[in-house]
Batch of 2 targets.
Target 1
Amino acid sequence: MPQTEQPNYFVIAAIVAAELYQAMVVARQIALTASNARSLAIRAGQGAAGFRAITDFIDDLASVTVNASKVINNQAVAVSRIASDTARAEFALVSFDNAFHKASGAPYLSSLDASYQRTQEYRDSLREKFDKQVVNLNSRLEELARELRTAMVLSAMSRVEASQAGGQFEQPLNVIAQKVADAAAEIQRRVKYSRQMFSHLGKGRAD
Amino acid sequence: MLTKQIFKNNSHQWLLFGRDPEKPEKIIDSNQYMVKTETKALLMDPGGIELFPSMLANVIKQVPVEQVTHLFASHQDPDIISSLGLWDQALPEAQLHAPWLWEGFIRHFGMDNIDYVAIPDEGGELQLDLVQLQFVPAHYLHASGNFHVYDPQARILMSGDIGAALEPAEAPLVVDDFQDHIRKMQMFHQRWMPSNRAKDDWIERVSKLEIDMMCPQHGRIFEGDDVKRFLDWFSTLDVGTAIPRVQSA
Ligand SMILES: [Fe+2]
Ligand SMILES: [Fe+2]
């Protein structure tokens, strides 16, 4: 089981945590955009009533996204931690193995067995925990991806409502619609990338 | 890695592990010591992470691994104790005796199972079956929290980085020509040791001990009169030399 061929679990989990952290930052921008949109819609008056209604949905979407990415980010950090502990336990096992070979014929060679077995059990329990957490994380990522699809719908609706508002408000409202679409697309990209990273983990497990 | 018994009586045994031919070239060679009593064993300055497999292999040639009940770290350096994260998995019931000052730092090497027993600045004692060992303060030599281990029965002082020499890994284990050995020690002591005041304090304390063997963590063991020669030489040595002296007019 050469170490170099093992996927670097803890690095991947850390990358996912970083991606989700960035997703959370972008989601916060959506929240800001939603509040700008609301004040603009209020100034635009009756013509932008439809748009004003949409800002509530944008708001909801932003807070759902912020919360979900926060939770997923924390989980990914926890997974990264488990993966680091696993790597340490693996390293200990490799070192015990190494010592075992160097000490062949030593009078107390078998006294290593208990340490080896204990560390192996510890490693296995970490792996099990890791696998469970990854499945959990994956389903949360899927859920978030689904949630984000509504962002595209909201953006399209915003465009329609912007043209209803007409006049001087049409252009800035369109900018807002575009911002929501861009932010959602960026979060989608990060979520998709994270899911790809995790799928490597699933396939790459070397035992 | 070589194992050498350096002392034995009815109650215990001192062993040196070192001169590892498999050691990666660029890491400093180090001596690890073990005191083995009837039911216990203490590993002193158990070494760096790179050395761990060789160390563990040599230890189980001497004792069952669970007999290693105590570890000692003179200070926090990586060549002293960066193997801790691995010993922690091998010896979950063991205790680590180390300066209180470094607890928060040494734990960075990874310690989930082993107990940290903090040695107070004034030092302390450790009882292993019939053997009583003393932790002798050697602060600022070179680490700001630092201890040596003295065994009054064996008259051995494990002196950490004091008495260290930089020389090839295949060098003999015992100093055979003190005058010639000086050139291998001088830079190490002048550059790594920061304080003449700390040095004088340590020399005064150690001069009161009866020492047949002074065993440093690098280089060679000093035996008999060479211990006194070392103390005399060290007392005249100006240390902390990376800071230029102020010229008095
Ligand atoms: Fe040191
Ligand atoms: Fe050292």
Target 2
Amino acid sequence: MGMNITHDTIAERVREQPTQLFVGLITTLFLADLLLKLQGTTVLLFDTHVLGGSIGLSELFTYILDGLIVGIAVGLAGIGLSMTYSILNFANFAHGEYLTSGAFVGWATAAVVAGGSGVADRLLLQSNPGLELLSTPIALTVGLCMAAISAVGLALLLDRLVYKPMREAEGISLLIASIGVALLVRYTIAFIWQTGRYGVTGSPTKVTILNLVTLTTHELTLLVLGGVSMVGVAIMLEFTKLGTAMRAMADNESLARVSGIPVEQVTRLTWIVGGGLTGIAGYLFVLESGTIAFNFGWINLLLIFSAVILGGIGSVYGAMVGGVLIGLVDKLAQVWIPSDLTRAAVFVVLIAVLLVRPTGLFGGVKTA
Amino acid sequence: MSESSDEPTAEPVLAVDSLEKQFGGITAVEDVSFDIQPGSLTGLIGPNGAGKSTTFNCISGTLTPTSGTVHFQGTEITDAPSHVVAEHGLFRTFQIARELEEMTVLENLLLAPPNQLGESLIYAVTPGLRQRVQKQERELRERAWELLERFELEHLAREYAGSLSGGQRKLLELARALMAEPSMVLLDEPLAGVNPTLETQLLEGLHELREEGYTFLLVEHDMNVIMNHCDPIIVMHQGSILTVGTADEIRSNDRVIDAYLGGDR
Amino acid sequence: MTASGFRSRLTGLPDAVYVFGLMAGLYVVFTGLTVLLNFELAGVVNTLRAITYFSAVYAMVVLALNLHWGYTGLFNLGVAGFMAVGVYTMAIVSGPTNPGPAEIPGLGMSLWVGVVAGVVVAGLVGVLASLPALRLEADYLAIVTLALSEIIRLVLNSTLIQEVSVFGVTFGTGGATGLTVQNNPQTPVTAFFQSWPGSAITDMAMAIGINRPTVVEGIGYAIVLGAVVGLLFVFVRRIATSPFGRVLKAIREDQVVAAALGKDTRWFKIIIFGVGCGLMGLAGILWYGSDGYINPLSFRPNITFYVFVALIIGGAGSNTGSIIGGSIFASVLFYLPQFLEQNSTPVLDGIQSVLGGSTATPQTVIDAGGALVGLDLTAFLAYCFANISSLRFIGVGLILIYLMQRRPDGLFGHRIETAASVPLTTGDTDE
Ligand SMILES: Nc1ncnc2c1ncn2[C@@H]1O[C@H](COP(=O)(O)OP(=O)(O)OP(=O)(O)O)[C@@H](O)[C@H]1O
Ligand SMILES: [Mg+2]
């Protein structure tokens, strides 16, 4: 009888949620395959390789760690996008450019602060200033602050000039305008810094934690700073009036307006918090990769969108979790497909999420 | 005018049975059942929030009901998407007029007729076939102008529907539904914002059409209109049907008066 | 004259006047430029060929996109991807089975089979993409189509299907290296001009001083493209002025109403997505295919944004506007900067002869700024010329922002292009 009941519920589940079930099956299949690979077992069916293979534990660890690092950076970059998406109601295609411009200003400042000959050359990152956490900590800290400040400045300036006159417009008009903003900012950066890819860091020290994982001080900085910023923002939004006001606006703007929430002020604060985090994220992206180019924010934009949508638009926790998941997909996909296709895998996940659960993992929960 | 409601009747054109609609936790419509006789102008009244529009949405396929059934001319249309409901000949208007704003008044009208040849891409672009499309469009054009005349919208024919006043939009919405020559139209407050002279004309028009065989279900807050023109009258309150009857029966029903005066029971 | 006065005067003329008037104007301007730069006749003619070619290919894609965004309100950001599908399919299907060494073989069919296959496959991919389109809001659709376009590009770029063998037949995309398109739409045009009677035209052109056969062949191809734009215009206009087009507009305005009026909106969306993407595939074939070489880099999302900007300049929803927007964008925003960059030496010399200063290009923006402060405008302009492709994007971005803020209807989007196959007059209100 007990058997019967479970049988019924499973059949019912299949009928009611075929997509969820499908997603579950696929995930299980991949995990099973991963376990088989770790064991070094290959499953053959009619002489064709269906499952398994081999992969080393350390290789897998590297992928996971890399995924975590990318994921934290993407998640941090995603918070601002998620906030403007839910509160101002449009998909900001210029979001990648806040990353890039924050990073450029931050690293140019850091290069100058680190000192040495030729301020102009240092500003334009003409030669690698070789910045490194342990040898030039002050320059890096000042750079980080400048990255945040400049991204906030840019966000406010663009809001004033572009988006404010369009407050009444539909989301899609704002989206198109943001494509214009993206082109404007990205190529202004290219006009100033040219289109090369510049190295900015020296080789960071490696540290081994608990004899398990080895990572660089820069990667460690990214993980710690990224994590701390995320948690800080989450706490801030949870326990301040600003967080409440933002949630109210995200829910229903006109209602928020009539109930006395200073909508313009909240909008400005949204840009400030979102812009600052995004500038920091851009700076950390470069700290980890060691190089900077005028289009790195744009190239990562769809990755960030994927994270935000997977997590659920409007949710800070969603952006974090989505970022880490997307980072893991981006790196772990190498187990199955050529590394030049992992991005495509991320985008497939993005499309799948939009089809299966467009509200995302944390959608509807509306955590801040 | 007052004898029809308890007469033994022909096959109903619309049969709603135990309709229920929930939004999240709220039950907007609960256990609503009624039959509509062909050729009638039935009234549907009830205080704000009684569930009238929701009932319309469930019948017309704009919303899917939580439970219950809807039959139209003997065919079940309960879970049919709204375009299928319309294909069966059951049209509806919206309470808040939903014009196709950046389309002209004429385009709005010409959109409505079902099964137009030119809705097939092949017909639209192939030279020989396109002539047949044009022929059909010329006929539709004539009907559109007749309707415009009837609704006094001729001078606006080429304007964007978005530039019409609130009352004019209501008229266009009604004209657009009639353009399709449906068997039945669900009218959600079609007279709100329409001036009295035109209102009288429209109501006379509805009666003429009714005599031609159209069936109407009319939601209206103006009691004079309902009492003088509709038979029978369905009264809804808090999601359920309170009573069904003739104007006299409704007028003398205490529960109806309570519902309107008392609000929450 | 104010912009609105100009616009109201613009309305009322037959549409062909705008298109041909605009092209004539562009020809005059570019002839003037090339004459100023002392081009020989072949060079002048070749410049006019280039603007015709770019105007035509842009007009094609913009017309296709107008079906999606202008008519149906479907925000398709996958234009580049669909063009790529079209031209890659064509290249693979009609590539020779035994090409030269180090080349990747194709399926060896004829060019026409390849073109049809390209259009059909692009259309089918479009139909697949429309399945999410049926359920998603406009901004999500934008993200999904952009992601799809990137997936297509990344797959074409990867080693995965660079060269594959299926049932003994070898073919592939060439991966990041790209693919030579031996059998391409330019090929039959070139062949025509190389044998009688076409060769007579070539000879005649040579006699009057157009001394490069490739220029003549290029002109021939540009004319063919112009004709294709004409046909395409008739095609999309027929769609637009039909009950089918009326339903598309209704979907754009309010899908719920369209459905309440008995229109199966899903079906219409699927069809139009397929048709539009097929046409984008065709444009991809005629545009990139004719270069004789394709590679995934050409199909980055920037090209999609270009096409969008062109559509918005012309005015979403207007077919005439699509052609005008395509031509203006292609000639003024796309080709002119490229032209100036290619001729920067004589242009800068000319500027120097008027303003003085130095034509040596400053190495950095700081040096360029220094030159500007030192009133050496020529040196500053030299830096600008060296970075003209960045400036072009900056300009495109500014225009897009301006249009969305001030003139979202573009040049022609405010016009009422009635969606009906006959004039909607009646006996007593005849005009
Ligand atoms: N989409 C929806 N989501 C949640 N609740 C809804 C929705 N639509 C209607 N309701 C609720 O259902 C109830 C019935 O609404 P409905 O619009 O059917 O009333 P009505 O009788 O048409 O009122 P009115 O005369 O004011 O038009 C109301 O309490 C309303 O708040
Ligand atoms: Mg109502």
